Amino acid sequence: MALPATKPSTQVWVQKQTLWKRILAYRYLYIMLLPAIAYYSVFHYYPMYGALIAFKQFSITKGIMGSPWVGLKHFEYLFGLDKFWQVFWNTIIISLYRLVFGFPLPLIMAVLLNEAGRLVFKKTVQTIVYLPHFISWVIMGGLLISLLSTDSGVVNNVIRSLGGEPVGFLTDENYFRSTLVWSMIWKEFGWNTIIYMAALAGVNPQLYEAAVMDGANRWRRIWHITLPSIRSTIIILLILRIGGLMEAGFEQIFVLYHPGVYNSADIIDTYVYRIGLTEGRFSIAAALGLFKSAINFVLLVTANRLSRMMGEQGIY
Question: How distant is the alpha carbon of residue 162 from its chain centre?
Fold first, then answer.
């Protein structure tokens, strides 16, 4: 005799009871999670309320709710500006350069360090390469000016001593974009290397021993064991990087750029800073920031969906 089907209300009640039991069982972990929830709620989710000014003619005296609605007027205005499309494509190009040249380098460095035999050498190199991460862009900007300045920079002094002409790394539009990308890679690739090193620490050494017994050389072990073992980490970092494609590095560019290189280095974030804070056009700046965030969101969801379609776990 078949048992009667469980009512939907009973199933929901059982699920709630199970949920509360799990929360009670892991209550200390949830307590530890509270500061992170509070941080993101106060500094990330609550400020999203201010995105309303992108659809209003914002006035400081009237406030957000008191300002009149204008719909998509600010977006139409932006899309009609040549300057908007210039900063948009500058952002895309700089971000793609950083992705293409900057994403593989930490992985290569991590694999090379993982293959290094001497622990002292490995720790020394690892410390040297991730040290620039802890230097602020203000200080790093001063270092780059000292190194790359046309008049008294160390690099250009060497070029002059060899009989060449000084190169305007920071003043010429043809070189400034490349200078941005490679200085960003120099500063950050060591820190990203640590993530891959942590993933490589979890690879079972018995796999390498078995591969050696089968006659696999070093390159075969890297290709068939090392890289597949950390593939999920590579995919997750790639998804996050694609999801932040419209983030081209505001701090770095703000420290280094000047009106002479606006045509090649002015990005969405620096443009928002100028029209929002210096010109007081808050609604247009908010519309531009919201447009950038929407693109990042679409890219993140798309990259995650593609990774799941290829059999990877993704970030959610």
Answer: 39
3-state secondary structure of 315: coil
Instruction: Give the Cα separation of 197 and 303 in Å (integer).
Output: 24
Distances, alpha carbon 173 to alpha carbons 151, 168, 179, 266, 271, in Å: 17, 8, 10, 11, 17
What CA–CA distance (Å, rounded) separates 259 from 253?
12
pLDDT at site 209: 84
80-129: per-residue pLDDT in tens? 988 899 999 999 999 999 999 989 999 999 888 888 877 788 888 888 88
In this structure, what token pair is assigned to residue 237? 């970092």
How far is CA 33 from each of CA 20, 24, 49, 147, 280, rounded to the nearest angstrom? 16, 14, 24, 44, 38
Cβ atoms within 10 Å of 268's Cβ, excluding its own: 22
| Residue 1 binned pLDDT confidence (cut-offs 50, 70, 90) | very low
Backbone Cα Rg of the chain: 26
Burial 201-234 (b: 16+ CB within 10 A, else e): eeeeeeebeebeeeebeeeebbeebbeeebeebb
Q: Are 180 and 249 in contact (CB under 8 A)?
A: yes
Q: What is the mean pLDDT of the chain?
A: 86
* Bridge partner residues of 63 (DSSP): 59
CB–CB of 75/67 below 8 Å? no
In tens, the pLDDT along 238-250 reads 888 888 888 888 8
